[in-house]
Amino acid sequence: MSELKITGNITKILPIQKGTSKAGKDWQKLNFLVQTDDEYNNLYYFEIFGEDKINNFTKWNKVTSRVTIGFNVKTNEFNGKYYTSLVAWNIFNEFKDAPSEAEKERKEEVESSNDDLPF
Fold this sequence. Notes:
Layout: E1 4-13, E2 17-20, E3 26-36, E4 43-49, H1 51-60, E5 66-78, E6 81-93, H2 94-97, H3 101-114
Parallel strand pairs: 4-6
Antiparallel strand pairs: 1-3, 1-5, 2-3, 3-4, 5-6
């Protein structure tokens, strides 16, 4: 399967859900909505599992953040019914991960100073 990615704005972040598995392990899940600029089929409902991933997501993202998301489609069967979910595994925040203006200017200065070398 090819890599699945979308780009859009986070429109809603739902409260963290917590529970305990049959094996007795604690788990956490966070769901959020992303709306793309596409005319049709432009709303996606993602989930993130694990405390570390959730903490990293909430640290850098909020409603209105512009993000590009790499995700997998996962389907589970429970009592004869099938449930499909989109599991986000890579979230690129365009504003957090983009170089700042100062970084861009510094890079340009370094590149232009390299042109002045006498050899």
